[in-house]
């Protein structure tokens, strides 16, 4: 190879790119080309030196410079050779970031000046507590929540809560609650279950607990504080990305079939012991379980993805957080399922996400 042919590869080699073997051999043997490569290095160093001279000085930089030097030293060590393994060093940095994030979370805990009510709701009969955030700056009914679950001893509990008014540090909520035993056949959203139930007024203020009685079940206990924003946490600040051993969680699910997005259910979430269902208009119902059940196919769960194959189609369910610790998930698709055929007045035009009763997941 001649010098004029090798010249095109000098810049590429300096930038860290791979060059042909013939060019590498020529650059190593030719003094002129080797000198050209050395010139590239000196030019780069000079440009960096001049750039540093052109940076503005911080007149109050005594303390800042010291911190900056420490910070630069840490990041330099992450790139240079170290006496501890790189993996251990990366893990240490990750732990520091997690701890600092936890400290920020503690400092941002409830206060009395925020515009969002952070509710803690204790449910009968086992005293399970879940959390929700309601904005208090809008019109009555501008924010709310719906919740239902199958009671371990039998029956179904449904609850709806909506924001009504705020006066200082007191917030008025409208609460509907219902306990049904035996459970109804329809397992749709809480709003559909609460039709005809009288709404009760409940005033929440920091430092005081309030209760709403549920006939046949017991009392719901409410407590609240204020925060300055709706947190990204889907249930409570104490929840982790890693699900518990017996949890099955679906948060803001997106279902992809091949290259087509079947649905994007942003903002919806459900948590149950081992199973959950998703209904979408025109697509029917998808049942997901961490345990095998009749007529279900097996899929794979990895981090925030569940992949499976049904009816010759490849599906991927994406969730905002890992759904389960299990590596195998069982799925059943009911394309002809319609909520209206299981409960009078149920809507077939709205998506639904929730935990299902055991009868929907019969054992093989």
Describe this structure in words.
The structure is a single chain. The protein has 364 residues and is α+β, with helices and mostly antiparallel strands. The chain has 4 domains: 3-55, no CATH class; 63-107; 116-227, no CATH class; 248-360, no CATH class. It has 6 helices and 19 strands. The protein has helices at residues 3-14, 21-29, 31-53, 62-79, 86-107, 190-193, and strands at 116-123, 128-135, 144-150, 156-167, 170-180, 200-204, 210-214, 218-227, 248-251, 254-257, 260-264, 269-272, 275-280, 284-289, 297-302, 305-310, 313-318, 328-334, 352-354. The protein has a 9-stranded antiparallel β-sheet, with no helix packed on it. It has a 4-stranded antiparallel β-sheet with strand order 2-1-8-7, with no helix packed on it. Helix 1 packs across helix 2 (21-29), helix 1 (3-14) packs parallel to helix 3 (31-53) and helix 2 packs across helix 3. The protein is elongated, with a radius of gyration of 30 Å. It starts with a helix and ends in a 10-residue tail after the last strand. Mean pLDDT is 77; it is low at 58-112.
What is the H/E order? HHHHHEEEEEHEEEEEEEEEEEEEE
Q: What average pLDDT do the residues reach? A: 77
Domain count, please report it: 4
The helical percent reads 10-25%
- What gyration radius follows from the Cα positions, in whole Å? 30 Å
* Count of beta strands: 19
Question: What's the arrangement of strands in the largest beta sheet?
Answer: 11-10-17-16-15-18-14-13-19
Main beta sheet: 9 strands, antiparallel
How much strand content do the residues show? 25-35%
The unreliable regions are 58-112
Count every helix, treating DSSP H or I runs of 4 or more residues as helices: 6
Anisotropy-based shape = elongated
In whole angstroms, how far apart are the ends? Answer: 72 Å
Structural class: alpha+beta
């Amino acid at each position: 190879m001649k010098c004029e042919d090798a010249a095109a590869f000098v810049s590429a080699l300096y930038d860290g790119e791979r060059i042909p073997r013939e060019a590498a051999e020529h650059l190593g043997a030719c003094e002129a080309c080797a000198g050209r490569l050395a010139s590239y290095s000196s030019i780069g160093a000079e440009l960096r030196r001049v750039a540093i001279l052109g940076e503005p000085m911080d007149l109050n930089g005594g303390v800042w410079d010291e911190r900056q030097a420490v910070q630069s030293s840490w990041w330099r060590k992450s790139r240079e050779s170290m006496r501890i393994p790189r993996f251990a060093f990366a893990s240490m940095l990750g732990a520091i970031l997690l701890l600092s994030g936890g400290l920020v979370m503690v400092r941002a805990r409830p206060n009395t000046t925020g515009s969002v009510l952070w509710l803690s709701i204790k449910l009968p009969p086992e005293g399970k507590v879940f959390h929700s955030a309601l904005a208090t700056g809008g019109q009555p009914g501008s924010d709310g929540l719906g919740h239902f679950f199958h009671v371990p001893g039998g029956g179904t509990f449904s609850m709806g809560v909506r924001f009504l008014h705020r006066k200082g540090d007191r917030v008025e909520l409208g609460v509907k609650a219902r306990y049904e035993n035996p459970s109804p056949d329809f397992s749709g959203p809480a709003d559909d279950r609460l039709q005809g139930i009288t709404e009760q007024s409940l005033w929440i203020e920091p430092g005081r607990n309030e209760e709403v009685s549920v006939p046949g079940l017991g009392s719901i206990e409410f407590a609240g504080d204020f925060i300055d924003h709706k947190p990204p946490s889907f249930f409570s600040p104490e929840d982790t990305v890693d699900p518990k051993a017996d949890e099955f969680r679906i948060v803001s699910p997106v279902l992809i079939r091949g290259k087509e997005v079947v649905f994007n259910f942003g903002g919806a979430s459900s948590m149950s012991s081992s199973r959950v269902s998703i209904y979408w208009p025109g697509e029917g119902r998808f049942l997901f379980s961490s345990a095998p059940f009749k007529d279900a196919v097996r899929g794979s769960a990895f981090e925030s993805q569940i992949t499976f194959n049904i009816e010759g189609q490849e599906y991927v369910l994406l969730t905002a957080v890992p759904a389960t610790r299990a590596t195998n998930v069982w799925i059943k698709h009911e394309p002809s399922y319609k909520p209206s055929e299981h409960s009078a007045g149920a809507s077939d035009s709205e998506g639904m996400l929730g935990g299902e009763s055991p009868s929907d997941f019969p054992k093989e």
